[in-house]
Design brief:
Distance between the termini of chain B: 52 Å
Helix content of chain A: under 10%
Oligomer: heterodimer
Order of helices and strands of chain B: HHHEEEEEEEEEEHEHEEH
Distance between the termini of chain A: 13 Å
Low-confidence stretches of chain B: 234-242
Order of helices and strands of chain A: EEEEEHEE
Helix content of chain B: 10-25%
Strand content of chain B: 25-35%
Largest sheet of chain A: 3 strands, antiparallel
Largest sheet of chain B: 5 strands, antiparallel
Shape of chain B: elongated
Largest interface: A-B, 50 and 54 residues
Number of helices of chain A: 1
Structural class of chain B: alpha+beta
Mean pLDDT of chain B: 77
Strand order of the largest sheet of chain A: 3-6-7
Low-confidence stretches of chain A: none
């Protein structure tokens, strides 16, 4: 997947880090100190659909195959810049009852983007 | 952009333009991140922390969690004792909850308010233990003492829900398994657990379980409940893998 550097307009991953102290959430979130709220942005011209990103689904590869051959209805489907690889994150925080909770959350951080 | 036609079907394709044009885009992103985190934690709003847990109690309980250090990026570092190195682990879909005891209606009764979750996904308890600190009095002249600790669920008959015979040489932590009781408590609306702690031969041997100390002079020895829960689908998957 491509990293957005301000020069490319093609689908890429934009890094966005939020420090919990900066948003006043460090009183209830014990760890980690912040969150990588990465997101995908950029254009997906039809010729790169289904090519970027290492973890695109078999499903989108098949649709792309039909699209290239001009089969209806796939030739009208527009490609979209989406997360193609996500990863889990663990969080340690206080809940409303002042219990300490350690939770593992799947698909929390965007690692790669690609054209669907 | 509408003029460009079909590109508008895909919201993320128009992001670069938005970013350049809309003032306060970063603030909107931060708000979106806040909502996302709360959604993923099944919380309606951020918890209101009115009286933080004493640091000594927090540090002591964290040492007993099943996880290593949560890194800056949310990955967890686990100590590998065989090679004395640490490894990075992809977290599973699991939750660990430490619930500190609060004072109950009597001195020997402790109260645990287990986290409330609206979607009820805390339904499968893998493990639940009460951690209790047994203090040996300095005046005790015995070299070792054998005592029996029993836990009773308040208002639920005279049968102990958990018991343990302990051979004590010095003060220290002891665990009593309470998985079945906690599983039943999670099925209730209140998710509140009242436990009566009894200790056989404690008085005569100079041993005393540390319960809730109002003055917080012994906060690091406050009893706590630690439970490991899994979402139901993750649980069945794990069983199959084994």
């Amino acid at each position: 997947g491509l990293e957005c550097d301000g020069k490319v307009s093609i689908c890429c991953r934009k890094q966005f880090y939020v420090n919990f102290r900066d948003i006043g959430w460090s009183d209830w979130i014990i760890a980690p100190p912040g969150y990588y709220g990465n997101y995908c942005e950029g254009e997906c011209p039809s010729h790169i659909a289904g090519t970027s990103g290492s973890s695109l689904s078999f499903h989108s590869a098949v649709i792309n195959h039909y699209r290239i051959r001009g089969y209806s209805p796939f030739n009208n489907i527009k490609s979209c810049c989406v997360p193609t690889k996500l990863r889990a994150m663990s969080m340690l925080y206080y809940d409303d009852e002042h219990n300490i909770v350690k939770k593992d959350i799947q698909n929390m951080i965007v690692e790669e983007c690609g054209c669907s | 952009s509408p003029e460009e036609g079909p590109a508008s079907d895909c919201p993320s394709c128009s992001l670069p333009k938005l970013q350049a044009e809309v003032a306060g885009f970063d603030n909107q992103l931060v708000e979106a991140v806040k909502r996302h985190i709360l959604n993923m934690l099944h919380l309606k709003s951020r918890p209101n922390i009115t009286h933080p847990v004493p640091k000594a109690a927090l540090l002591n309980a964290l040492k007993k969690l099943h996880v290593g250090r949560v890194r800056e990026d949310g990955r967890v570092e686990i100590e590998d004792h065989s090679s004395s190195k640490s490894a990075l682990n992809e977290p599973e879909q699991a939750s660990e909850i430490i619930s500190f005891a609060e004072a109950g209606p009597a001195r020997d009764i402790v109260h645990f308010q287990i986290a409330k979750e609206e979607d009820g996904d805390l339904s499968l308890v893998d493990q639940a233990n009460i951690w209790l600190y047994l203090k040996v009095s300095n005046k005790s002249n015995r070299s070792r003492s054998e005592v029996t600790i029993r836990l009773y669920q308040e208002g639920d008959g005279s049968q102990a829900i958990s018991q343990k015979r302990v051979d004590i040489k010095r003060s220290g932590w002891h665990t009593l398994p309470v998985s079945r009781t906690v599983q039943a408590t999670l099925a209730t609306q209140e998710r509140s657990l009242l436990l009566k702690v009894s200790c056989e031969r404690c008085q005569e041997t100079g041993v005393s379980p540390v319960l809730v100390e109002p003055a917080e002079k012994d906060a690091s020895h406050q009893p706590f409940l630690m439970l490991l829960v899994r979402q139901s689908d993750a649980h069945t998957h794990r069983i199959r893998k084994r």
